[in-house]
Amino acid sequence: MSSQNIYILGIESSCDDTAASIIYNGRILSNVIANQKIHEAYGGVVPELASRAHQQNIVPVVHQALEKAGITKNELHAIAFTKGPGLMGSLLVGTSFAKSLAYGLNIPLIDVNHMQGHILAHYIDEDGYNKPPFPFLAMTISGGHTQIVKVDHYFDMTVIGETIDDAVGEAFDKSGKILGLGYPAGPEIDKRAALGNPKAFKFTKPKVDGLNFSFSGFKTAVLYFIQREVKANPNFIEENLNDICASIQYTIIGILMDKLKLASKQTGIKNIAIGGGVSANSGIRKALKDGEQKFGWTTYIPKFEFTTDNAAMIAIVGYLKFLEGDFAEQNVVASARLKI
């Protein structure tokens, strides 16, 4: 079937970005994202505002994706959409739009797990990008998720470690909020960390058995540390901001890498791939690259545009499912807590 010329429309609406992408035989022709700046004022995503913005954005975003790809909707072979996990109101907009369009065009509908999208983004055909061979370990790190997944084949995945409370992106954002940084704080912490001393301040790592993560205690430790220091010196944050950011980032990366090292040791797998918005962090990318030297890993780090929430990753999963004839029924429903 792969000898056919297949066009898939991917739609992603799991959180606050409305995205559409056209994929042609595994290659991305367009990848359009409408960001919702409105949430910055609230210091986090407001679900009700997010779903309203999706309703406004989805038609123009899909139209633009088709236009950029240079095709019409009548040339599409299937429509892939994010079924979950994510914010229910946001997911409903993408799901109902995809169902309606597929029904109107009389073409197959393909439901996609958002987390599988982050992992399978590595299989987008890109010049000069090597795809991870099976089996590999995928670490998906974002504002809502922190997981280590053993990937034996495209749709044969096992979660072997995950967060028992907060996600790593949340740890960055909450730490940033404590420091008075804007939302999202991750990129700002990353930028400042490059200018600071990562060993200036020591934060203890949470003790969690096995391959699971915990970040709630870490956030509390940062809060108490800042409160104590500011009490002694009201200018503490301004005077030490780069060092604080560097120390926070160093500790978070240490937590992630400890678990990844353990997972690699336990499974004997040395192919390591990352995905999710937090994998854009330069410190994490460097730590992974260092792992190649230290532990004999081969690491796979996707392009920035395929790490954050985007529709190209939904489209590639749609393409892979299309080849297997794995389609959804019209009565498919969105699921906020969908598991891999």
Key features of this structure:
Nucleotidyltransferase, domain 5, 340 residues, tRNA processing, alpha/beta, five-stranded mixed sheet, 10 strands, 42% helix
Task: Describe, in short, the structure shown.
The chain has 340 residues and is α/β, with parallel strands linked by helices. Helices cover 42% and strands 18% of the residues.
Query: Which strand-content bin applies to the residues?
Result: 15-25%
Largest beta sheet: strand ordering: 3-2-1-4-5
CATH architecture of the largest domain: 2-Layer Sandwich
**Strand runs, count:** 10
Q: How many helical stretches?
A: 9
What is the 3D form? globular
Query: How does the major sheet shape up?
Result: 5 strands, mixed
CATH class of the largest domain: Alpha Beta
Kindly report the average pLDDT value.
93
CATH topology of the largest domain: Nucleotidyltransferase, domain 5
Fraction of residues in helix: 40-55%
Task: Domain count, please report it.
Answer: 2
Query: What distance separates the N and C termini?
Result: 26 Å
Q: Compute the gyration radius: what is it?
A: 20 Å
So, the CATH homologous superfamily of the largest domain?
ATPase, nucleotide binding domain
Q: Given the helix and strand composition, which structural class is it? A: alpha/beta
Q: Enumerate the spans where pLDDT stays under 50 for 5 or more consecutive residues.
A: none
Q: From N to C, what is the helix and strand string?
A: EEEHEHEHEEEHHHHEHEH
